[in-house]
Amino acid sequence: MTAYILRRLIHAVPVLIGVTSITFLLIYVVPGDPARLMMGVRADLATIESMRQELGLNDPLYVQYGRFLWNALHGDLGRSFATNRDVLDSILERLPATALLAFASILVAVLIGIPLGVLSALRRNSAMDFISMLCALAGISIPVFFLGILFAWIVGFWLRWLPVTGYIDERGLAALILPALTLGTRPLALVARLMRSSMLEVLRREFICAARARGASEWLVVLKHALINALNPVLTAISGSLADLLAGAFFVEFIFQWPGMGLLAIRAIRTLDITLIQGTVLVAAVIFVLVNLLTDLFYKLLDPRVEL
Amino acid sequence: MSEPLERGALFRRIREEKMTMFGLVLIGVLLALAIAAPWVSRHPYDRQVLEDKVSPPSSTYWMGTDRFGRDVFARVMYGARVSLFVGFVSQGIAVLIGLPLGALGGYFRGRVDDAVVWLISVFWSFPPFLLIMAVSLSLPEHVPGIVRVFMAVGIVSWVSVARIVRGQFISEKENEYVEAARALGYSPLRIIFRHILPNTFPPLLVVVTLGFAGAILSEAGLSFLGLGVQPPTPSWGQMIRDGYGYVVIGTGWWMSVFPGLAIMLAVLAFNFVGDGLRDMLDPRLRGGR
Questions:
Q1: Is the Cα dihedral B65, B66, B68, B70 positive or negative?
Q2: Which partner from A23, B7, B108, B179 sits 20 to 30 angstroms from A186, CA to CA?
Q3: All structural domains of chain A
């Protein structure tokens, strides 16, 4: 296991080098002069030139890249052009809100999606199966920002059940419900669909027949024998939906004014705050790589036969 | 792949699958409406009738009007053009980049393959939408919004194409016909293009169809954030953006709901066809990512 972890970590190094290169290059080619953006339109040429010197923008590309990489390794992602705050600090400050939102959404997906999928599989071709699978299809096809607007309109404005904006510190946990439901719908739909097909497949196997033949109660057969065995592909799907969650968080945070990384990134894009955009993309990619690594490890712990 | 499909069998099975057929019909309708937009809609998409602004659906304006008094129905029709166009071009770009890379890696293996795999895993490490956004931002200022969108989506979605093509090449290479072609002294390029490539088309079709759905969602997302197609060209995402201030305070649900439904239907149609094709080609993959 240690050897495996080590091997995976070593494999992650060239990938992370590639990730940082792309992040650097993307921002390097962004239109507009960072020095001018920082100093504002009224600054004279001499001031801008001295700013360029200070930021090292006149150095050759590889020097700038080396510096960027070196600083990034030391956790220095530069300062925001707009607010002059440390980029990593601003991002880390927003991270808990996004993590909470993502966690709550996964919880929504698991707590509703798994039972829904299991019930659909058990009542195959019933009206309930048909309706829930139709809803699941709709859930996969609906753009998350459209769903957010619908929720805000129907639940927040019409029914006035839940707050539409704000964070948990002032509105309590109620503020989390709509954002989490919005972000959780797509993974929920995926989990329900996958759970259903995985369950149907397991229920056909011989050991289910054998358990029934031994006289095990239906509940025992379903919960102990079938569900446990059907769960594995669903777990992978949940880890796979992380990309969706990170992307969806952008829109959800924007619509519900949830103070997470996504809202920060959107503000950065609006103001063309290049270092902040760069930092958010890099941090998101690193989190993405790490979480994928962790899920692979977790998966291997659950099922040592898995070759990764 | 389970068993190779002979010509004609695929089409026969498509007709048997209701969902796939439904998806295909939906795509057909969408395409027809996009082409016929100027004749189907009763009002020009950009005509502002200020005295009729923010009016609910009626017999004059089937889907109501927006805050400038423009006909939402006409704009939804024209929006289909943008969505389908972005889908086509972005997936074209994805195939143009992904197919040769996947083929080279899968055929030659070794160093070439290492490089391809590295590139794939680097691109795979970014949450896709984030990368699409960053790429669209990094294009020069004079690039028009719609070009920005399909470039960004294409540059990011080649990865799925390359992955599937590489995988197909690796498994196809083991077949005897490849060995026979090699024994006959054919050049690697001929073997790649004439012999192996056609066998990668069915799974490629699945990836591209599902990618099409993803491209429509990405375009809508970018335009919703104001990073995509710029006004006055109507796009569904941008219409939702324009209307959403009215929707959440309950003064004009139609402005965002109709374009939102349009996105849903379009994505649903391509997902139906993509899933259906995948199930036909390999039933074991049913329900997978």
A1: negative
A2: A23
A3: 2-73 (no CATH), 88-302 (1.10.3720.10)
pLDDT per residue over A134-183, tens digit each? 888 888 889 998 999 888 888 877 777 777 666 666 666 777 888 999 99
Three-class DSSP category at B272: helix
Can you give the pTM of this predicted structure?
0.85
Instruction: Determine the distance in angstroms separating the CA of A184 from the nearest CA of chain B, rounded to an integer.
Output: 17
The DSSP code sequence of B192-233 is IIIIIHHHHHHHHHHHHHHHHHHHHHHHHHHHHTTSSSPTTS
- The total number of structural domains in chain B stands at 1
Give chain B positions within 8 Å (CB) of A142.
260, 263-264, 267
Taking a C-beta distance cutoff of 8 angstroms, is the pair B94, B63 a contact?
Answer: no
The CATH number covering residue B197 comes to 1.10.3720.10
Task: Confirm whether B2 is domain-assigned.
Answer: no
Distance from the Cα of A306 to chain B's closest Cα (Å) equals 18
Kindly state whether residue B39 falls inside one of the protein's structural domains: yes
State which residues form the domain around B147. Answer: 7-52+60-286
Which residues of chain A neighbour B289 with C-beta distances below 8 Å?
237, 240
d(CA B260, CA B236): 7
Is the CB of B260 less than 8 angstroms away from the CB of A240? Answer: no
Instruction: Give the bridge partners for A86, in sequence order.
Output: A79
Write out chain A residues lying below 8 Å of B118, CB-based.
Answer: 14-15, 18
How many Cβ atoms sit within 10 Å of the Cβ of residue B150?
Answer: 24
CB contact under 8 A, B128 and A266: no
